[in-house]
Amino acid sequence: MTRLEAHHLPYREVNDRLRALIAAGEKEIEVHGVNGHRYLAAGMTGREVTLKLYGVAGNDLACFMGPGIHVEVVGNAQDGAGNTMGAGRVVVRGHAGDIVGYAMRGGKIFVQTGVGYRVGIHMKAYRERVPVIVIGGRAGAFLGEYMAGGVIIVLGLERRGGSPVGSFLGTGMHGGVIYVRGGLDPRFLGQGAVIKELEEEDRRVLDTHLAEYASFFGLDHRSLLAEEFVKVVPRSHRPYGTLYAY
Q1: Exposed, middle or buried by CB within 10 Å (0-12, 13-18, 19+), for 38?
Q2: Are 107 and 82 in contact (CB under 8 A)?
Q3: Cα dist. 150→105, 121, 138, 225 in Å?
Q4: pLDDT in tens, 188-232
Q5: What's the burial of 75, exposed, middle or buried (CB within 10 Å: 0-12/13-18/19+)?
Q6: What's the distance, CA 174 to chain centroid?
Q7: Which residues, in sequence order, are bridge partners of residue 34?
Q8: What is the spatial distance between Cα 31 and Cα 123, in angstroms, rounded to a whole number?
Q9: What order of strands is seen across the sheet that includes strand 2-5?
Q10: With a threshold of 0.90, does the pTM exceed it?
Q11: What DSSP character marks residue 11?
Q12: 155/61 Cα distance (integer angstroms)
């Protein structure tokens, strides 16, 4: 394990040093003193390596990240974590900001507590590349907006009587699926999103992703599955098909 001090380094130099260490064959790198450094792990790909970031990761953490890179934030992440991420894994042991997983095309993001607004918008999937976001707490409004593929799971573990999601859930979604633990008031649904009954495949998907999520945060995934989930899917693959053409 190699330790890198980032207190007085600009984000470009932090990334340059990380790339050099990865190229040298390091398998685990700790970065201490992360204080709003943006673009950390941006575009990184290659051999299997774990980057453990201590502090607050800045905007666009792991954007465009590829296979082989596993990022763990011991703290919070600001906006845009996983922006257009193609593969790999991000674990946030805290809160994450707005537009997490924007246009995400693969990989997994696990957030221990809550997230901000417009998380998972424009997510896409292709064949075996299915992006996944699991949120332990509450998600803000417009979750899954214009979602085209992938899986979003909201557990609502930190809510106190309120809704686990904000308004306009799944607005304009035309692919993918959103699972909300513990029930959902239909008033929170956005245009184009509908509630459906869970099928056996849905339970398999939940079991797989929640087992992995629970392994990072010391939870019992079976207890997470004990409460019922609501499944939200698009009403149509062309929710605005007649808006611009007839």
Answers
A1: middle
A2: yes
A3: 8, 10, 19, 20
A4: 999 989 999 999 999 999 999 999 999 999 999 999 999 999 999
A5: middle
A6: 19
A7: 55
A8: 29
A9: 2-5, 28-35, 49-57, 69-77, 89-92, 108-111, 132-135, 148-154, 175-181, 229-234, 193-196
A10: yes
A11: H
A12: 23
Find the length of the chain.
246
* pLDDT value of residue 246: 53
pLDDT digit string (tens) for 45-63?
988 999 999 999 999 999 9
Tokens of 223: 């207890």
Computed over every residue of the chain, the mean pLDDT equals: 94
Collapsing DSSP to helix, strand or coil, 163 comes out as: coil
Using alpha carbons, list the distances in angstroms from residue 62 to 57, 70, 138, 199, 204.
10, 9, 22, 33, 28
